[in-house]
Amino acid sequence: MKKILIFILCCLVQLVLAQEVESPSKDIKLNVSINNLGEVAYQVSYKGKAVIKPSKLGILLKDGTDLTKDFEAVDTKTASFDETWQPVMGEQTNIRNHYNQLTLQLKQKNSNKRLDIVFKIYDEGVAFRYEFPFEKRVEYFVISDEKTEFNLTGNHKTFWIPGDYDSQEYVYNETKLSEIDNHKLDLNNGIALKTIESRYRVQSPLMMKTADGLYLNIFEAAVVNYPVMHLDVDVNSFELTSNLPPNAIGDKAYLRTPSTTPWRTIMVSDDARDIVASKMIFNLNEPNKLEDTSWIKPMKYVGIWWEMHVGKSTWDYAGSQNAQNALSQDLIPSGKHGATTENTKRYIDFAAKHGFDGVLVEGWNVGWEDWFGNWKEDVFDFVTPYPDFDIEEVARYAKAKGVKMIMHNETSGSVANYERHLDRALELMVKFGYPAVKTGYVGRIIPRGEYHDGQAMVNHFNFVAQRAADYKIMVNSHESTRPTGYSRTYPNYIAAEAARGNEFNGWSNGNPPMHETILPFTRLLGGPMDYTPGIFETQMKIYGDDRKDYMVHTTLTKQLALYLTMYSPLQMAADLPENYEKYLDAFQFIKEVPVDWQESIYLEAEPGDYITVARKDKNSEDWFLGAITDENARSTEIKLDFLEAGKKYKATIYQDGKDADWKTNPKSYDIKTQTVTSKSKLKLNLAKGGGTAISFELVD
Known about the structure:
The protein is of the alpha+beta class.
């Protein structure tokens, strides 16, 4: 009887349109169909293997319009595109943007509502988005839900974090899809992440590996004027559905015609290196909108930051007992304030001595006595320094030393307050010669009821980058939405945090050794991350008994390798100057490693286990290599055929010592040099939680 019912349903639901498009290499095939109910569905295969089973598409509007059915195809158009473009900064000088395209122009049979769905098929995956065309007049509408499906073929191994609309700062879980269970997680904001029945909410990008060896990643690109996409995962059927953060009254997005949604992306390969090296997310963004980019420059920096995280000093000048006077100059100093003129000059001297471009100073401005957790809208004004921070003298001293200052604007989540003060804050940066600003959004968002990942906040983060460009200021955002390639459009959006960074190792259970082997497959696909590597003093107990259980979960040489595996044109030497003075031979690598590249080659990669990458300096013929592993020790042999044939290089190898271990002996390392060529091979031995960093200097 059951088989008869299925047969009857199959007869009732028939395809009235079916179209297939291949990737340029023909490895990926996309099939798009419309059935006699007017429902649009797609499916994806890779080298003949099903990757995405038939999955429906559509949008629901607040006025009751159901854009998931009753469609007929007005027209279908195909096209091919192939270009090569040059990012202002990046992992490579040239990026190829090559795809085949299918545009499905739809009209609802009864309402005549129009909707286009555009598909782009790359060699590394498929992207699609909804487009609302302009007709006779502008129409305004509200998205109440997006019904995009990604129906998977099995119970894949998955690297996931919970779908918290306000934060990505979680340790990754490595489980089967069926084992996702957010109720086991302690979420500070108390969001119920179980949606309905067997569905749990996780964040994208979602990295997976199938039982038959395919690597699969579901993400999005070009999130502009739209909320971030999370995913509801049905742990029984392995069906994924888009989940959009609402605003304070429950709406998802306010749009008008013409407009588009972000691209939904599916990357797939039988080689993990193809995923981590993909530039598909950037290719799906609009080209650079800035005519003059000469002022956008890569930076390595030090700063008054880590000493607050380890408890040596404080952000606030007076202590919480003076919170009521936080915006006055009548404060009694606590004696632990980090951002003093004298201390800043010490960092400037260190930067100048060792060739760093900039110095970040956090806690320089009034308001830190009462900044967190109170939902006050006007804690900071972003222009008033504490009495012990002479901003004019600091700027003069830095300029004399050839060092740039990096501004810090913590908003405490009060976005409306920051936007009111933004131009004055940017004018202050211009006045004192600050080329970059680090923004922060710790805490719940004000206006109340908004989420970090909602449409309003997406617009805010993008607006800050746009407005900063008017002042020729680069932006490094923390606690923001995770990037989706927008740095192609506004390259002054130089970096972001938007994940669990190195700072968690200073005051919590920290990041497990596998953490940094997952981020390049997830967070970094959308843009550079300010992970703040370079912590040499890995045992936090030296800062006090209250930190005896905290440590960095890597060896010292893995911290060096992170400068290669965690790409960013803005890299911090995050530890205290006095800690670097103890290990100047290892510190030499941080001083030498570039942060802008003409070529990058991922030599090995396996999410959750290891990554090895070689990069060529943008301004010389020198190469650098970084290799990291998870909690397991690893030995590997690397061919150096990426080096120029017929040339000799001096290889300086920073490696784990024979007795190194991230937990028991993290600071055991060896440094050796040898001459190599493109025909050479190097044996790398990585300790538990370890890494290797190598510089290849052209000598012939």
